[in-house]
Amino acid sequence: MKLKILLFILLCYHLSSAQVSDIAIEGIDIKWSHLFIDSSFIGYQIDSDGKNQFDFFNTNDDHILIRNNDIYVVLVNGIHAGMGAMVERINLSTGDKIWQAVYDKRTTGEYEFPSYMYINEENQLEIINFRSNGIYQFGESFWNQGKPSIRFFDIETGEQANEIIADQDDESIPLLHFFFERTKLVPRNNSLMYYNNGTYFADSIGIYGLELEKNGLRIDTLHQSFQWDTSKFTHYNESIFRHDDKFSVLTQFINIDNLTQEVKVHELNNNFEPINTHNISAGIDYEQLLDMTKFDYKGFELIGKHDVFTSNSLGISVYYFDSNAELVESYRFPQFTFYGFKSYKFKDQLGSLFARTIAIGDDSPYCLLQFFQSDGQGNVSLISENKIENRHAVAIRYLEQLENGDLIVLAHFLKLQEGSANGIFGTRFLELLRFSSDQINLISNTDNVNTSTPYLKIYPNPASHTLNIAEGRGIDHFEIYDIQGRLIKNNISFAPQIDISDLGSGLFQLMSYDDTGRLLYISRLVKE
Fold it and tell me: Model-level pTM?
């Protein structure tokens, strides 16, 4: 039988904050919700004209910017068919749209992907884009053609003031080398940042400055400290962060001769001179290293003077270093997978906050939105679980805590259509939500735990033979994982004491569940 190739469908979308959101959340009130998208796209079909079209909006944490009392969101339209993009300015207090700018909506097979945005010193919104000349072929890469550009928007009206497109024919502007020969990927996922009236990009060689000239873009090499044999190593994606009085750059490499991988965090001062290097891959077995670097990192942060918090497509990891940048401990939290979680460091609270959505079933009319909090010491607690009606879980794209403690969440939801199969067909919603932190029961310190928040206390820790359980509210059973996220013991019934004499010495994670299988806590456990 001849295999029929189904094509993507292009349906109408509605881009108006005036749309009425039917979102209903049990367990927590939302201050407002802003509905960006109400468009069908999931599934392979042929539109009424038989055209190969694909239309939906997407975004990630590099496409959201909060300034003063407004939030700016860039959305990509037609990520594979190349239909351009749009940006909205939204009032942070009310969730109302202030203006919307849809730009470069093409139908020629070209592709535009916003990589980074910021507000410059002239009070303009700048969006750095990648413009591809290639036509996407399903299952094939097309990152071998194109050029970067910068678009300028009036901050008050949203009107596009200007666009600078790199001239790839000008040999004095090494853009093809910069964007393709070295990086192989469009710079994104935190690899670009704005600092001190300049835009900086980090790759496996160093940090670069992106400057504007009358005739186009110019790239200056500011620092080249990460020396590698480029004939021997290739790399994935990098991240750059500005914090305190230094920069941190995360790099990932693959030795193409023996397929070994290395992940490092480089610290640099204001002059882009190296201060220290943390070798995250040191002391980690090859199997876990493959898991760590199999997909792009979604971000990393320093959570202490020397400690690194990372999240990638397969989970969340925390690495603890001593003053000599030697790896002391590392933890990988299983259960937290790419589809349905996003993680950010707290500004004024303990540790980190995680959010994820969970699909109850392929045909379920609701999903769960969960918030977890980490104390930065290997312990994680479920602090809020909320049932969301009329939504099927897809993913959390953005999570941020405002100065007053409120939480901003950008989520992809799927509303299943009648006759849908396994969640393939449906209407995708991209929704921006604002929650009050008071209702999420954020824990400000370990001595003041809200009684409605599940809480676990274990002792002694370290333990040699027996682990005592105290204050384990809501727990039905346990599982024990090693620090590489591998299951060691399961189906351990709740009891005041747990026998751990059969465990070898080392660091473990005690996972606690209720009688429905819901994860309540992750506890750091040291076996002597």
Answer: 0.70
Sign of CA dihedral 460, 461, 464, 468: positive
Q: Report the share of the chain in percent with pLDDT over 90.
A: 7
User: In 10 A of CB 39, how many CB atoms?
Assistant: 20
CA 288 → CA 138, 160, 284, 291, 337, distances in Å?
A: 31, 46, 7, 5, 15
Q: Is the peptide bond before 365 cis (omega within 30 degrees of 0)?
A: no
The alpha carbon dihedral of 489, 494, 499, 504 has a sign of positive
In the 8-state DSSP scheme, what is residue 176? H
H/E element holding 292?
Answer: helix 286-293
SS (H, E, C) 359-408: ECCCCCCEEEEEEEEECCCCCEEEEEEEEEECCEEEEEEEEEECCCCCEE
Quote the CA–CA distance of 380 and 143 in Å, as a whole number: 39
- Computed over every residue of the chain, the mean pLDDT equals 65
pLDDT over 70, % of the chain: 42
3-state secondary structure of 456: coil
